[in-house]
Amino acid sequence: MSESNLVAALQNCRTLLQDVGETFWSEKIGLLLEKNEGQLSAHDARNVSSWFGGMGSFNDLMISAANDHKVNFADEDRLNDELGRLRDTIYVEVNKLVVATDKSPSDYWDS
After folding, report:
1. What is the rounded CA–CA span in Å between residue 5 and residue 56?
2. What is the average per-residue pLDDT within 31-41?
3. Total structural domains in the chain?
4. Which of 18, 52, 94, 108 is disulfide-compatible with 26, CB 3.0–4.6 A?
């Protein structure tokens, strides 16, 4: 996958979350995408990777009527499976971008 696939996964995730009324994460993703017209910097990638750790993280999000999402109980499993696939793609691809943009210690030393 490429950065464009990462951006597509973020866009699809935002749409899914907007459709069920999840405002916090859909707005967070939207701000990121709108900031640089869909071009992610190394700083942006590190920011996204931070979404996956700690309490209340992106990992913890579950689409559920119990969370005040606009969803029927019968659709929750399917929508959470889709969210999980998108989240997995985002996690893997953003970490590839972080690794690709990180400098090794030798990059800071003069030869």
Report:
1. 26
2. 86
3. 1
4. 18
